[in-house]
């Protein structure tokens, strides 16, 4: 008996291939049961997310098993064997365990340290259990993997530090203000990025959200989602004295806020700190306002800078995680050496 | 009850041993904190914290031992006051500043404490009976209150510096070690303010207790003495600081500079009367 894995992910294949071979929730049971009937397949499990599709199997005979896995994919998704050869990777024996441990710890993810994958692996495992396509070998492997995933999260900071633009904006805000509960945010522009950022602030318990947009109705729609208030675009200037955080993402050929304006506002608010996040390209806010006392302005490049630093830190954590993984793989190999020798 | 001389001598040896032990543990703990600060590793920091606790324990033991031998709070000379001063700063660090939300700020107390201890180690540590005039419970109350206020002002000073550093990093987008290891500007300012608020309270009580004591021994509440005048200046300065926040609406940055100024006055009040303006309060 041999443990095998045939898979595809964001590193080996472009999205147009990945989408062809993914298994959506509604066909997953059918696929699991279908694969079970193939030659030499003893146990099988399918993990399918937007970035990867992986089939884990315990097969009676190595060469027959691999052939079955390939035929299954080409049968089920109607793709050529040629494409499978080009885009899929194949592991067997202990390498399968090593790969799974990496996946569940999100070391193999596109965004290092993201948390979703842990739940996705668990879901795939439960689904296979439900369909009774896995036996004691894969159960043992996946139970171990879940433990490994938990341990890596606990012992490293791989998930720490914001790595998306909107969460970086929140992280920066938390370096200036302690309590978001007492702060007001104004969002200028009802675009997608702006909305995600507001959502992030909202979930961190910001006191209130104001939305300004050239089309007032759109501002109202977004404001209502976050229990906020819509204001007219012309009234931005008056509203500023009540705000602590201003996020702007409009497409405008010229600056919508100038240094003189902000100087006036700051005097009015006795130089109480005001944090601007300019997500617009071209920039919406005159960069010179950063010179004003207690005004902090971050544009999209500044946010990217913070994000890159956080990614770098995650990479260092990933090295720590690798060490933990090696230890787990060794232990796992020792415990199950009778059947996961591979090849 | 007084301890026989021979026994006193033995305690002295033990005393110096514990002083060295305290310095050693603080220094070791400081090194652990530095490594953890640069490498950003929490485990090393926790280890540093435990070593710090051991150091604080020997430090406390030191203070208690000396108090038992002298039968009053050991504060009658510069050496003793430095030990108490550094102990109070450490106490505040361990009780308050090591909480998670303050992130790494507690670490910055070390340079000050180590400096005080280093300073003390160069002074005469012999236990001498204090002047009979000082043998009063008022000495303990008055001294403790005043040094509590000095300690709080010192911590305010440290947080003011941290505020200014973090402010520069955020303003000029130098996303470095401070960015990741220090709490928000608002929190740094809040701590700097609150330590002054409480420090001012203790200073007020300290001055009051001193004048009651003065009435008992000198017959009047006030005497022309450099330390008294400096304390009054210090008291007025911190009163002004509090007003800028409560009534004048000054912002954090200006307050941070005020806190730096206040610390200089505190230092001068503490040491100036020994080195420049001799008076009734001189230690040396």
Write the layout of secondary structure elements.
The complex is a heterodimer of chains A (343) and B (284).
Chain A: E1 2-9, H1 15-18, H2 25-36, E2 41-48, E3 52-59, H3 62-77, H4 81-87, E4 89-92, H5 94-104, H6 116-130, H7 136-155, H8 165-176, E5 184-188, H9 192-203, E6 208-213, H10 216-225, E7 229-232, H11 236-239, E8 245-248, H12 259-268, E9 274-278, E10 295-299, H13 300-335
Parallel strand pairs in A: 5-6, 5-8, 6-7, 8-9, 9-10
Antiparallel strand pairs in A: 1-3, 1-4, 2-3
Chain B: H1 5-39, H2 42-70, H3 78-97, H4 109-121, H5 137-171, H6 177-181, H7 185-218, H8 226-246, H9 252-275
Helix pairs in contact in B: 1-2, 1-4, 2-3, 3-4, 3-5, 5-7, 5-9, 7-8, 7-9, 8-9
Query: What proportion strand of chain B?
Result: under 5%
The biggest beta sheet of chain B reads:
none
Please give the domain count of chain A: 2
Order of helices and strands of chain B: HHHHHHHHH
Q: Please give the domain count of chain B.
A: 2
What's the tally of helices of chain A? 13
What does this structure look like?
The complex is a heterodimer of chains A (343) and B (284). Chain A is an alpha/beta fold. Chain A has two domains: 2-155, Beta Polymerase, domain 2; 165-303, NAD(P)-binding Rossmann-like Domain (Rossmann fold, 3-Layer(aba) Sandwich). Chain A is 49% helix and 17% strand. Chain A contains 13 helices and ten strands. Chain A has a six-stranded parallel beta sheet. In chain A, strands 2-3-1-4 form a four-stranded antiparallel beta sheet, sandwiched between helices. In chain A, strand 8, helix 12 (259-268) and strand 9 form a beta-alpha-beta unit. In chain A, helix 5 (94-104) packs across helix 7. Chain A is elongated, with a radius of gyration of 26 Å. The model of chain A has no long low-confidence stretch (mean pLDDT 88). In chain B, helix 1 (5-39) runs antiparallel to helix 2, helix 3 (78-97) runs antiparallel to helix 4 and helix 3 (78-97) crosses helix 5. Chain B has helices spanning 5-39, 42-70, 78-97, 109-121, 137-171, 177-181, 185-218, 226-246, 252-275. Chain B folds into two domains: 1-130; 136-284, no CATH class. By secondary structure, chain B is mostly helical. The interface between A and B is medium-sized, with 21 and 18 residues.
């Amino acid at each position: 008996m041999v443990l095998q894995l045939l898979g595809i992910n964001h590193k080996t294949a472009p999205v147009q291939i990945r989408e062809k071979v993914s298994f959506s929730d509604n066909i997953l049971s059918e696929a699991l049961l279908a694969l079970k009937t193939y030659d030499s397949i003893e146990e099988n499990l399918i993990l399918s997310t937007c970035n990867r599709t992986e089939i884990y199997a315990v097969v009676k005979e190595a060469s027959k098993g691999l052939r079955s896995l390939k035929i299954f994919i080409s049968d089920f998704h109607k793709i050529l064997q040629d494409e499978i050869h080009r885009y899929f990777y194949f592991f067997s024996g202990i390498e399968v365990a090593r790969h799974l441990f990496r996946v569940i710890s999100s070391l193999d993810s596109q965004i290092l340290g993201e948390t979703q994958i842990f739940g996705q692996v668990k879901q795939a495992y439960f689904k296979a259990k439900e369909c009774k396509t896995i036996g004691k070998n894969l159960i043992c492997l996946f139970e171990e993997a879940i433990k490994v995933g938990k341990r890596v999260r606990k012992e490293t900071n791989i998930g720490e530090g914001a790595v998306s633009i909107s969460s970086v904006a929140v992280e920066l805000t938390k370096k200036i203000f302690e309590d978001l509960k007492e702060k007001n945010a104004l969002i200028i522009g009802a675009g997608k990025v702006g909305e995600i950022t507001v959502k992030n602030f909202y979930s961190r318990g910001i006191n209130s959200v104001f939305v300004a947009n050239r089309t007032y109705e759109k501002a109202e729609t977004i404001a209502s989602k976050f229990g906020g208030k819509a204001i007219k675009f012309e009234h931005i200037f008056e509203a500023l004295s009540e705000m602590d955080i201003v996020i702007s993402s409009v497409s405008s050929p010229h600056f919508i806020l100038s240094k003189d304006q902000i100087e006036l506002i700051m005097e009015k608010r006795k130089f109480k700190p005001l944090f601007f996040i300019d997500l617009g390209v071209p920039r919406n806010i005159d960069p010179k306002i950063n010179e004003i006392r207690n005004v902090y302005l971050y544009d999209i490049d500044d946010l990217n800078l913070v994000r890159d630093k956080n990614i770098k830190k995650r990479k260092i954590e990933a090295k720590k995680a690798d060490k933990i993984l090696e230890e787990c793989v060794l232990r796992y190999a020792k415990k199950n050496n009778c059947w996961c020798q591979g090849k | 009850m007084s301890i026989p001389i021979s026994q006193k001598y033995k305690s002295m040896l033990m005393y110096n041993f514990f002083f060295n032990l305290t310095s050693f543990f603080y220094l070791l703990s400081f090194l652990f904190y530095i490594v953890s600060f640069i490498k950003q590793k929490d485990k090393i920091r926790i280890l540093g914290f435990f070593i710090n606790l051991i150091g604080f324990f020997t430090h406390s033991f030191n203070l208690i031992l000396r108090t038992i031998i002298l039968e009053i709070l050991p504060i009658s000379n510069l050496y003793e006051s430095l030990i108490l001063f550094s102990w109070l700063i450490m106490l505040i660090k361990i009780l308050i500043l090591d909480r998670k939300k303050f992130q790494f700020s507690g670490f910055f107390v070390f340079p000050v404490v180590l400096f005080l201890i280093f300073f003390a180690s160069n002074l005469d540590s012999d236990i001498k009976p204090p002047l009979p005039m000082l043998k009063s419970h008022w000495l303990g109350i008055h001294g403790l209150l005043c040094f509590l206020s000095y300690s709080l002002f010192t911590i305010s000073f440290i947080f003011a510096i941290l505020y200014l550093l973090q402010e520069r990093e955020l303003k000029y987008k130098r996303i470095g070690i401070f960015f990741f290891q220090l709490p928000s500007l608002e929190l740094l300012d809040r701590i700097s303010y609150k330590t002054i608020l409480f420090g001012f309270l203790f200073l007020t009580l300290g001055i009051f207790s001193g004048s009651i004591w003065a009435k008992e021994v000198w017959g009047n509440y006030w005497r022309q003495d450099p330390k008294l005048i400096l304390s009054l200046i210090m008291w007025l300065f911190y009163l002004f600081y509090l007003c800028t926040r409560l009534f004048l609406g000054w912002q954090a940055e200006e307050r941070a500079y005020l806190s730096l100024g206040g610390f200089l006055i505190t230092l001068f009040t503490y040491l100036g009367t020994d080195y420049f303006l001799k008076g009734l309060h001189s230690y040396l």
